[in-house]
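Protein: Alpha/beta hydrolase
Species: Macrococcus lamae
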Amino acid sequence: MSIYSTGFRLIFGMLDKIRSHSETAPEEVSVLKDITYKDNQQLDIYYPENIMDRYAVIINVHGGGWVYGDREVYRNYCMTLASMGFAVINYDYRLAPKYKYPAALEDLNDVLHFIKQHADCLKLDLTKLYGIGDSAGAQLLSQYTVMMTNTSYASKYEMKLPELEFKALALNCGIFDPIERISKTSRSPVLWYLKRLLNDYIGEDYLELRELLNFDVYVTTDFPPVFIANSVNDLLVGKQPMILRTFYRNHVPFVYREYGHRDVMSLHNFQLDLKRRTAQNCMIETLTFFHHQN
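Structure follows.
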């Protein structure tokens, strides 16, 4: 474990513990817990109170700089999504630096294979499949979706993808161009730290993988509609990610929202703190966007 990943885990672990201390999970949600989807990797599934034959599905890809995060951190957020009428998949993936790129992508692929194989017994309607990712999770989710929608890009990986497609995505506080960011001449301490995390995630040859990690050139019109949310107070990511230009250029339908204009404490991954109005509004707008894709 590098000192950079250790420091990241300590800092964000403390912040998440403070945030979750006053959280209350919705009572009207049922849980299937600790389901093994591959080897020792597990997921939870949350269902709404209303019993249905099949449930629309949201897969949540957690953030954490590729080195931190788990199901417990996102439990309340995912259960709240489920209370709105979805079956929500909340899963763990292998973290760097112990597991290098593309382990996290492989785990997302395994989760999708698992839910496709068990969709009937889990009552999942995979014709209504949505994805939500934040921070590094937004990067992983969007990168994997490029694989799903561009066979040329997918051929660069030794993965067999399931025959599934996302109806829409929500990408919150995402880092979409990590290699491009750290390649710029800057004294930013954030970019300095991002470079160390990428070294933990990918290895010292991360610059050689620039084309794979900066996947925007592989985005096509087949990429699903996207809801993109950022906070104006996010010092880690900033505003208006460059990927918006990529979506616009390739005619990918998208909605971009900025939050936090009246709440300076709505910071990076603000959408998780559901006590705040900004997070509540973001969730409502996200799910409204999903419903409009049906």
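Remarks: The CA atoms of residues 47 and 87 lie 5 Å apart.
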